[in-house]
Sequence to fold (323 residues):
Amino acid sequence: MSTKASWSAAKKTNKKNKTAICAAVACALALVAAALVVFMPRGVPEGAVLTIDGYPVTAEEFALFLNDRRAATASYFYKEHGAEVDQGFWDREYGGLTPNRYARQTALDELMPAKMESILLKERGLLEDVSYGALMAEMERTNAERAEKIAAGEVVYGLSEYKPLEFYFYTRSNRWTRLLDSETELQRGKVGDTALRETYNNNLPYFSLGLEITAEKITAAGKETITLKQADIPKESNELQTIFDFLSQMTEGEETEELELSEGMVRFKVLDKEDMGSTPFEDARESVLRIYAEESLRGLIDERVSKARVKFNNGLYEALKIG
Fold:
């Protein structure tokens, strides 16, 4: 591939009887009561599909995750069984499994850690209400505030109006930051240098200072020597980043063909490339602590999810379907 062709590629690259009846009714009620102990835990609001460590998940909340699995489920059954989505697809068995059953299970797998993050926030006194109802009320307030700002001609960043799924994950992202802040402070007084240094060494690419490239820039006006430091390239400078990425793949002494840049036609000759090493441990300590805290937090959530007490309202759970 020519240098010029590579440059073009580089630029493009830049979720019975009365007694008997009474007895029968009493027996039936007893059976229902027993079933409720297993499938509808005491204190769970009407409409709950399941509880996670006692915290209810409503049909509406579960449905968000279930419907979000539509495309992934269809893709899975197409790849595994060659199944196309038609009128009976969602309740037809393929290898003993229906798409709806698969979608409910994968939706539960996605919901569990999301709910556990909110539960942890509540346990740490950082969130008052983990219910879906409270979240939707917050969404309505947020949307109303945004609408007022837009009507007043003010700038609103992000979406002008959130839908439930969008707001759920927007809020989850914000809650994760608060949870990570909390975990970082919890770990600050517990973790020692040995564990932090191990984390540092396991994440060295994150602390790399990158390359420094010295090159000769050749234009119609003449030649000049320039130095490009990877760590200093502004994030908003797409062209400069593309130039750097391009030159980093070249060897010392290699020269480009003419490249069309915003300033005109330019050629570069690589004079020198130097690995700048990594940020020293002591200088990176706070970032290392943050990484350690995040790894610890993710491990804690995985453990809490694996040990969580999950109780189902089986009738309602099985009734939730796609299609």
About this structure: Residues 70 and 322 are 7 Å apart (CA to CA). The first helix runs from residue 3 to 12. The first strand starts at residue 48 and ends at 52.
